[in-house]
Design goal:
The protein starts with 7 loop residues before the first strand and ends with a helix. The protein is α/β, with parallel strands linked by helices and 356 residues long. It folds into 2 domains: 136 residues, Four Helix Bundle (Hemerythrin (Met), subunit A), CATH 1.20.120.420; 210 residues, Translation initiation factor eif-2b, domain 2 (Rossmann fold, 3-Layer(aba) Sandwich), CATH 3.40.50. β4, α6 and β5 form a beta-alpha-beta unit. The strands form 3 sheets. The chain has a 7-stranded mixed β-sheet with strand order 6-5-4-7-10-13-14, with helices on both faces. It has a 4-stranded mixed β-sheet with strand order 11-8-9-12, covered by helices on one side. A 3-stranded antiparallel β-sheet has the order 1-2-3. The protein is built from 11 helices and 14 strands. Bound molecules: 5-S-methyl-1-O-phosphono-5-thio-D-ribulose (MRU). 5-S-methyl-1-O-phosphono-5-thio-D-ribulose (MRU) binds next to α2 and β9. Pathway: Amino-acid biosynthesis; L-methionine biosynthesis via salvage pathway; L-methionine from S-methyl-5-thio-alpha-D-ribose 1-phosphate: step 1/6. It catalyses: 5-(methylsulfanyl)-alpha-D-ribose 1-phosphate = 5-(methylsulfanyl)-D-ribulose 1-phosphate. It is an enzyme of class 5 (isomerase).
Length: 356
């Protein structure tokens, strides 16, 4: 493995393999998973072996390429029909992060542009290039988010984050964590408070792992401790990622984010969302339209192999919540910071990016 944080890697040419870090094994094991077919990519997304909004978009784009490998290359009509089936299949893996749908739609647009080609092989190669472009562009978006976000953070700040919006959730470097890594690159000391992020512990297992790896001061807390840590004056800013942001700025992110935003408001602490424009869904006016993924209750009753609740108890396990725009101080994108978070400001910054 070239780097322990090479979240997603394509090996080979058009007939290749998608290699992912299996994030369910972190932080104890850094193990790669080779996907040779679209079914294994779907399973990896569903089971959160690859997770985080931009990362699942990239994985799905490569998943389409894998799924098209065996299609008769001579018949472009058959090729396009199969592409539609695969698009629907991959889109059924997880409902909330819009990057998944954005990436799949972009792949289909590219194929449609080439649909008059006599051979599916030409389209297949072009789709691999498109998936690689989505992957490479995400690297650049993440770096730019870090550059725009770092000036918002004063040296010596305590920063609270929730879930994992780091290199593991993106091509590399992350969104929320990109801001922290940029502070570090600039020699600005920070101290990150990491919510463990129940029930699947993306904060404890993944964010703490990334911060420790990079030598950034990190303190792990249970989600329920955030209010106390804020009251003690240890937090000067909150920065989180996003799975889908609507036209008015409402933001879906990992369950518990809304609680953190409410606490930040109560303590007068700025609350920032860091996300590329590929995470915006301008077809939805408000967060009420965002589909919230419901996951198995066993993630709560049998977390990490041990039963911690009585058999027969009812469980509710939404994987995401929506933070209303009015609780968000600013949204840091690769094109700059949206603040205040109003519909006009969101659309002015994001619409031109999504039109390209
Ligand atoms: O269920 P997950 O682990 O995929 O949830 C991920 C998050 O909520 C992240 O904060 C979000 O996708 C942003 S990743 C840059």
């Amino acid at each position: 493995m070239k780097s322990p944080l090479e979240t997603i890697r394509w090996q080979g040419e058009a007939s290749g393999t998608l290699t992912l870090i299996d994030q369910t094994l972190l932080p104890l094991e850094i193990k790669e998973l080779d996907c040779h077919d679209v079914e294994s990519v779907w399973e990896a997304i569903k089971q959160l072996r690859v997770r985080g909004a931009p990362a699942i978009g990239i994985a799905a784009a490569y998943g389409l390429v894998l799924g098209l490998q065996d299609v008769a290359m001579k018949d472009s009509a058959e090729f396009m029909a199969r592409l539609d089936e695969l698009h629907a299949f991959l889109a059924s893996s997880r409902p909330t992060a819009v990057n998944l749908f954005w990436a799949l739609d972009r792949m289909r647009r590219r194929a449609t542009q080439l649909a008059s080609q006599p051979s599916g092989k030409v389209i297949h190669l072009a789709l691999l290039e498109e998936a690689r472009a989505i992957h490479d562009e995400d690297r650049q978006l993440c770096r730019a988010i870090g550059k725009h976000g770092s000036p918002l953070i004063a040296a010596g700040s305590g920063i609270l984050t929730h879930c994992n919006a780091g290199g593991l959730a993106t091509a590399e470097y992350g969104t929320a964590l990109s801001i922290m890594f940029t502070c570090q690159d600039e020699g600005k000391p920070i101290h990150v408070f990491v919510d463990e992020t129940r029930p699947l512990l993306q904060g404890a297992r993944l964010t703490a792992f990334e911060l420790v790896q990079r030598g950034i001061r990190a303190t792990l807390i249970c989600d329920s401790m955030a209010a106390q840590v804020m009251r003690e004056g240890k937090v000067q800013a909150v920065i989180v990622g996003a799975d889908r942001i609507t036209a008015n700025g409402d933001t879906a992110n990992k369950i518990g984010t809304y609680s953190v935003a409410t606490l930040a408001k109560a303590h007068g602490i700025p609350f920032y969302v860091a996300a590329p424009t590929t995470t915006f869904d301008l077809t939805l006016e408000t967060g009420e339209g965002i589909p919230i993924e419901q996951r198995s209750g066993t993630e709560i009753t049998h977390g990490f192999g041990r039963q911690t609740a009585p058999a027969g108890v009812e469980v509710y396990n939404p994987a995401f919540d929506v933070t209303p725009a009015e609780l968000i101080t600013g949204i840091v994108t690769e094109r700059g910071v949206i603040s205040p978070v109003t519909r006009d400001n969101v659309v002015a910054l994001v619409a031109p990016a999504l039109a390209t």
